[in-house]
Model the fold of this input.
Amino acid sequence: MLTFASAASVQAGTINIVVKTVLASQNTKFADPRLSDLIRELESVFRYSSYQLLSQNAMNLNMNQTGAAPLPEDRVLKITPARITGNRAELQLVLFKGDRQIFQTVIQLLNNGMITVGGPEYKGGYLLFNISVSF
Done:
């Protein structure tokens, strides 16, 4: 059941998206305290010993509007909400390095849901993208 506030957001077509970019590695044993709400989930899915928050980007996007999360080494993650069906949002994710597209996928997330997607190598580890949505 939608609340009044979330029903208004869906009608307006606005999706609130937060992208947390995490450096995951085996170099040390470290859990960034800014990731305290995610560490248990990250450790259950990935087998790294260190998780460091590099950046957090929040965006409010309309359907078919593209937002960008800047990343290290001239990379950018572009996110475009394609549709909301019931309680799910469909997002298109495209990762670029410079002008070159290096990854593309489509994900569906429940309202107030999140997913962590593995990314490219970086500084002896890998970039992970934790993406959460609300609408």
